[in-house]
Amino acid sequence: MEKILLAHGSGGRHAHELIKNIILDAFGNTLLEKLDDAAVLFTEPGSPRSPLAFTTDGYVVKPRFFPGGDIGKLAVCGTINDLAVMGAEPRFFSCSFIIEEGFSIDEFKRILISMREILQSTGVQIVTGDTKVVEKGAADGIYIITSGIGTVKMKPAPDISLVRPGDILIVNGDIGDHGVAVLASREGLKFRVPVESDCAPLTDLVRTASDATGGRIHFMRDPTRGGIATVLNEIATAAQVGIALEEENIPVSEGVEGLCELLGLDPLYVANEGKVVFVVPPEVAESLLRAIRNHPLGKNAARIGAVTDAHPGKVVLKTAIGGTRIVDMLTGEQLPRIC
């Protein structure tokens, strides 16, 4: 009898197989089958209403507190970012807590304060929710489920159908910070160069990018579970294009690079919580880079590659030593419970 594995929650190949072969088989419809970070609703031609984006996510990160954030900040930022990359301004959230009996009230208050700070800074309101308490041992402290609704402001909204050969790939900074920060905290690892999670709300950064390009952003995605490698494979497969990456251009901090080398991890597959992969036409790429490099969340932004009509459905990396290799979707589980 087949069973659910940790790898089914990795965001990689097993996760995609679970979603496509089992979940979509049960619930498949035209909105869900797009597998976007959020569903875009009310898009009827001639409708006076702005489209709405709707998303939901669950957070089970271990440990609950880590350098640069905690499960509460992560839950709010993650849902904000799933709406932002759809070209939406987040408006209203629901929030549900599943709490283990015996959980510290003081820890719970810390988590709520962390969530409130992000909500207040972004103008988002939690307007409904639920709380359940389960027996001791039935959960690992606390799990959080958030859903969000936002108004789609970008016209046209980013969509995978707009991606085409010649488009440029840009990321707004160092990759892998979140996954490494959580792993180091979990295992008690110390760094000469400290690594903090990049967990942050991306609404203002996306707004800056949209203004700089005149709204000409073909596609965006925040590379969380499975890292940028998984996101780029999703783009290549869905748009049936090739993607050519330049290893020397991909920004990785010294701390992340060092730990990944030590543990045999590939930063391309390590999770982020404050990054966006932008896919834009070549004529606006430099304008985008200049604009987001002047933003606090884009100081190390870089052009990391391009969309090509060669090898459709595949991501190919030109290595620092001049060779090439296929960057496939992650098969196993590099780092469980990082979000």
Return the CATH topology of the largest domain: Phosphoribosyl-aminoimidazole Synthetase, Chain A, domain 2
Corresponding CATH superfamily of the largest domain = PurM-like C-terminal domain
Number of separate structural domains: 2
Residue-averaged pLDDT:
94
First-residue to last-residue Cα separation? 28 Å
- Low-confidence runs: none
Order of helices and strands: HEEEEHEHEEEHHEHEHEHEEE
Task: Describe this protein's structure.
- There is one protein chain.
- The chain has 339 residues and is α+β, with helices and mostly antiparallel strands.
- It folds into two domains: 36-152, 60s Ribosomal Protein L30, Chain: A (2-Layer Sandwich); 160-326, PurM-like C-terminal domain (Phosphoribosyl-aminoimidazole Synthetase, Chain A, domain 2), CATH 3.90.650.10.
- The chain has eight helices and 14 strands.
- It has helices at residues 13-27, 71-84, 105-122, 177-187, 203-213, 227-239, 254-263, 282-293, and strands spanning 39-41, 52-59, 65-66, 69-70, 88-100, 125-134, 142-152, 168-171, 219-221, 242-246, 277-280, 302-308, 315-318, 324-326.
- A seven-stranded mixed sheet has the order 9-11-8-12-10-13-14. Strands 1-2-7-5-6 form a five-stranded mixed sheet, with helices on one face.
- Strand 3 (65-66) and strand 4 form a beta hairpin.
- The chain is globular, with a radius of gyration of 19 Å.
- The relative contact order is 0.18.
